[in-house]
Design goal:
The complex is a heterodimer of chains A (about 475) and B (about 500).
Chain A lengths: L2 H5 L2 H19 L7 H17 L6 E3 L4 E3 L1 H29 L5 H20 L3 H19 L6 H32 L4 H7 L4 H18 L6 H9 L2 H24 L6 H23 L5 H20 L4 H32 L10 H4 L1 H15 L5 H15 L3 H27 L13 H19 L1 H10 L5
Antiparallel strand pairs in A: 1-2
Helix pairs in contact in A: 2-3, 2-5, 3-4, 4-5, 4-11, 4-14, 4-19, 5-6, 5-11, 6-7, 6-11, 7-9, 7-10, 9-11, 10-11, 10-13, 11-13, 11-14, 12-13, 12-18, 13-14, 13-17, 13-18, 14-16, 14-17, 14-19, 14-20, 16-18, 16-19, 17-18, 17-19
Chain B lengths: L5 H14 L3 H33 L5 E9 L4 E7 L1 H20 L7 H20 L3 H12 L1 H9 L4 H28 L12 H6 L4 H16 L10 H8 L2 H11 L1 H14 L1 H28 L3 H21 L3 H32 L10 H4 L1 H14 L6 H14 L4 H29 L16 H19 L2 H18 L1
Antiparallel strand pairs in B: 1-2
Chain lengths: ~475, ~500
């Protein structure tokens, strides 16, 4: 083990360094300028994001516990960009509500630790590392969800999250131990060699899958989602629905496509049924939501159902379409949450009715929201359309036309409720419309990045080719 | 820059300029300049097409092909034949007329024109695409602005109508997506690569079982926007609630996407499927023809009358396409064009009448010929064209359709043809009834005596639409030849 091999862990080490730096920085920060911790954290994370883009070799460390390759590296960058945008969008909220109570540093430490956990989770080469990463990524988020201590609903959301997450990871761990029992190893590379389709290994697969399904909030493991999103601060809800979900989808896909590939005939059916259930339940529940956070919660459940259409393909095409979709989903969902955040911060309003007449008072914000919703609904020429179309292509390539048909029915259902928000913003006029306000610099930056992402990612096809090349070892 | 991509680029530039416009005056001038330029391009395209056709006998001319997503073999692939050239010309004319008619759009004018132009981009792109993916993208781009256009600037139950229209059309396009994916994944049936290119897929012998499965999906996906019975219900509500220019564009152009798509994609790529299913869909189309006409008979709202009349006329397009012979096809395309001009003109006139009298209820109007003679006379002319009077475009189209349809030697098809012909009579009844009640007779309302005169921009809008109607009626041959020539690959492929 030498210094070069540590460079492979560049993401992790840098992020750890930032966490430590922030702890030290808090000691030295002037009490009259508490807010500077936010600037510092965003600055450091920005640098971290940029550094992350330098190319990295494919290799593994610690006897195969930690591995990295182009695709994993790329996915970490997606998560980085997501978190950076999220920090930009929540900077004002932090300044106003959190930093004043001397809790700004905690926020960043918790969030970055959770992100660190995700790095380890998606880089894991064995189930031990995977489990450690899973826990590290979940526990801090529970603390973050309960961050607005003055609100009862926020603590409730924290408790709900921690309890269900603990249960989920327990179930997952049980599944892992069963897999260990059948194969005699926790290393992915070893398991691939010996795993066969026995009752015990299938049970292990199912339990393991259930644990991760909690994190992705697939039906029937979705019950925590709406309540937690509603109670948690918006930036945390957005973190849960974008970053946390994205990382979990990624590792689930990697494991299903490599380690558990010999059991594909089993999980194919499982994914098929869960995909249908998730799409329908997510979409049908979203129809009646009034609170924007609950609304986006159910919408993100439905989106997870669409992602399964890519996973069911099981090969390079599946990997590419899922990663591509997640990338686009990060931008679209962050844009939607960003607008909700901006409005909630200015006025404290979070209901769909409050958005009536928004276009006449805040046209730019409404347009951002419209683009985000169109992208989530999958309407060209914004990026979401391409993401979804390719997911459907992936499922159709395996001959799952019925599944694709049910998915497109769901796209139409989802269009209805996305249009409800657009109806409120554009079609309605209201005397109590939210008055004009100007966003601060960070928020504006956060929204502009997402809008650029939504507009460009779909039309710019070399990106898709790039991801396709990265995932070539799944062929 | 090639001559076809300009049809996308010019509107995009217009939109970019529009973003910086302030107020109604700037917005409408910019849109006007943009659409006049577009119109000029379309005229230029017609001449260029004739010139090119003389030396080039490929199926599509002015083709251009850029690889887009190479993993899926998706291309930005464009080209035109006579049919698409004619439809492009129709679109530019209706858009230009629409801008004239919206000259006094007070509420959020900039947004209105932007949405209108986005819609037109979708339509242009759809007509020039020869790649299924690109075509589908443009199809959806054309549909979604309708939600805002009807929802924001509409009248009556606008939220309901806008939602209904959008969901039905997007639902149809979702079904269409499955059909397209089905075609795509069977495009390697002869051992070639998977492709979205229409011309390449047409050379492939897709297995009959597959065609049987995917033809209905593709057909319905397109036919919903062509108001196929029983999926036509979005159309009357949508048209009645939409503002004038949007009704014009929608009935005049957007609904033509249906017939074009059915012809170019569903029937051309899945000919055996078409043969297998034609008996079923032709029943639906014939019902649409007759039902639309009867429904129009019972309406009193001018816009509803015209909307149901559109259902009837466009039912004829699908009906003729499914007859699977050359003359009927020629008639179907001509009917698409003729109906496009006619119905746009109708909606423009209805908008003018409504703008002056503030009612669209036929029973409350009367004697308009005395107070607004110009509009009334044009209304009569449009009505006569619509009921198929010789000398106007409607006659040429319907003549072709029925002559073609009657050549079908199956008795079942002949019976349906006879039924559909009867719709012409009913058309005459509802048109003349409206003319009688609304235009003739005594002036029913004192306020009508002082209605404002027709303005110059309204005249421009009307004439733009009227000239092609008369032109097509008097000299249909050049257009008809252009279309017949382009039908050749279909005849080889389908029949």
């Amino acid at each position: 083990m030498n210094i070069d091999s540590f460079l492979l862990m560049r993401h992790e080490i840098l992020l750890l360094a930032i966490v430590l730096l922030l702890i030290v920085a808090e000691i030295f920060i002037n009490q009259n300028k508490k807010g500077s911790i936010v600037h510092l954290a965003i600055f450091l994370f920005g640098i971290h994001t940029i550094v992350g883009f330098f190319a990295i070799d494919e290799s593994s460390l610690f006897g195969g516990m930690f591995r990295t390759n182009g695709l994993i590296h790329f996915f970490k960058n997606i998560l980085n960009i997501g978190v950076l945008v999220l920090l930009l969008q929540s900077a004002d909220w932090l300044q106003e509500k959190i930093v004043q109570h001397n809790r700004g540093t905690e926020f960043f430490i918790l969030m970055f630790s959770s992100l660190l956990g995700m790095y380890f989770m998606i880089s894991s080469g064995d189930f031990l590392m995977f489990y450690l990463g899973l826990e590290l990524s979940t526990l801090p988020v529970a603390a973050l969800a309960a961050f607005e201590t003055t609100k009862r609903i926020s603590s409730e959301s924290g408790i709900k999250l921690i309890l269900s997450a603990a249960l989920a990871s327990g179930v997952s761990l049980f599944g892992i131990s069963l897999l260990y029992a059948t194969t005699g190893s926790i290393y992915f590379n070893d398991i691939i060699e010996v795993i066969t389709s026995t009752n015990l290994s299938i049970l292990g697969l199912v339990l393991f899958f259930a644990g991760l399904a909690f994190k992705i909030s697939l039906v029937p493991f979705h019950f925590w989602t709406a309540d937690v999103y509603e109670g948690a601060p918006i930036s945390i809800a957005s973190y849960l629905s974008v970053i946390s979900k994205g990382a979990a989808v990624f590792i689930l896909m990697i494991l299903l496509f490599t380690v558990l590939k010999p059991l594909m005939h089993i999980w194919e059916n499982m994914v098929y049924i869960i995909a249908i259930a998730t799409m329908f339940i997510g979409n049908l529940f979203a129809l009646r939501q009034q609170n924007m956070k609950r609304f986006l919660a159910f919408s993100s459940i439905a989106q997870a159902g669409f992602i399964l259409l890519g996973i069911i393909e099981g090969n390079q095409l599946g990997v590419t379409t899922v990663v591509y979709f997640v990338l686009i989903y990060v931008f679209s969902n962050l844009a939607a949450f960003g607008v909700v955040q901006a409005i909630s911060l200015q006025t404290g309003k979070e209901n769909m009715n409050d958005y009536e007449g928004l276009y006449r008072t805040n046209p730019k914000l409404s347009l951002v929201m419209m683009l985000a919703l169109f992208s989530l609904a999958g309407i060209p020429p914004v990026a979401g359309f391409f993401g979804k179309f390719f997911l459907f292509t992936a499922a159709a390539s395996k001959g799952y036309y019925l599944l694709v048909f049910l998915a497109v029915v769901n796209v139409t259902i989802s269009l209805y409720y996305y249009l409800l928000v657009i109806r409120a913003m554009f079609l309605r006029q209201s005397d109590h419309a939210i008055p004009f306000f100007k966003n601060k610099l960070y928020m504006r930056l956060g929204l502009i990045i997402t809008v650029l992402g939504i507009l460009i990612l779909g039309l710019y096809s070399p990106l898709y080719d790039y991801i396709f090349e990265l995932s070539s070892n799944f062929n | 820059m090639d001559i076809l991509s300009l049809f996308i680029i010019v509107p995009v530039i217009t939109i970019l300029v529009l973003i910086f416009a302030k107020g109604l005056k700037q917005s409408r001038i910019i849109s006007l300049v943009g659409s006049i330029f577009q119109f000029g391009m379309a005229i230029n395209l017609v001449f260029a097409y004739f010139k090119e056709r003389a030396v080039n006998d490929a199926i599509m001319v002015f083709t251009k092909d850029v690889v887009w997503f190479k993993q899926f073999n998706i291309h930005y692939s464009i080209g035109v034949d006579g049919i698409s050239v004619a439809l492009l010309l129709l679109t530019t004319i209706v858009v230009l007329a629409g801008v004239f008619i919206s000259w006094k759009m007070k509420d959020l004018p900039k947004e209105f024109f932007v949405s209108l132009i986005v819609l037109s981009i979708g339509v242009y792109g759809f007509f020039i695409s020869i790649d299924l993916f690109t075509m589908f993208v443009f199809f959806e781009i054309a549909v979604i602005p309708m939600y805002l256009l009807i929802g924001i600037w509409g009248t009556g139950p606008r939220e309901y109508s806008a939602m209904k229209l959008t969901l039905m059309l997007m639902g149809a396009s979702a079904v269409l997506l499955v059909g397209i994916l089905g075609i795509y994944f069977n495009s390697n049936a002869d051992g070639g690569p998977l492709t979205f290119n229409i011309l390449e897929i047409a050379q492939v012998n897709i297995p009959f079982e597959v065609q049987k499965l995917f033809f209905p999906l593709t057909f319905i996906g397109f036919a919903v926007i062509g108001a196929l019975f029983p999926f036509h219900t979005w159309s009357p509500d949508g048209h009645a609630s939409a503002p004038t220019a949007v009704s014009m564009l929608h009935a005049g152009v957007l609904m033509k996407l249906g017939g074009y798509g059915v012809f170019r994609v569903a029937m051309y790529l899945l000919p055996e499927g078409a043969l297998h299913w034609s008996w079923f869909f032709i029943i639906l189309a014939a019902i649409g023809v007759v039902y639309g006409a009867f429904a129009a008979l019972k309406q009193t709202d001018l816009k509803y009358i015209n909307a149901y009349s559109s259902v009837s006329h466009l039912g004829l397009v699908l009906f003729a396409l499914l007859m699977l012979n050359k003359t009927a096809w020629n008639g179907a395309i001509l009917q698409s064009l003729s109906h496009g001009f006619m119905t746009a003109l109708f909606f423009a006139l209805i908008g003018m009448i409504y703008g002056r009298t503030h009612t669209r209820d036929v029973t409350k109007l009367g004697g308009l010929l005395k107070v607004i003679p110009f509009i009334s006379v044009i209304y009569v002319i449009a009505g006569l064209a619509s009921l198929g009077l010789p000398g106007f475009s409607g006659f040429v189209a319907e003549m072709n359709i029925f002559v073609g349809a009657f050549q079908h030697d199956d008795i079942f098809y002949r019976v349906l043809t006879i039924l559909s012909v009867s719709a012409i009579v009913i058309t005459a009844v509802y048109i003349l009834r409206v003319v009688g009640i609304m235009l003739m007779g005594p002036v029913k309302n004192e306020a009508f005596l002082s209605l404002p005169k027709v303005t110059w921009y309204e005249k421009f809008g009307i004439l733009l639409l009227l000239i092609p109607i008369v032109g097509m009626g008097v000299a249909p041959l050049w257009l008809s030849n252009m279309i017949l020539e382009s039908l050749q690959p279909f005849i080889q492929g389908v029949l």
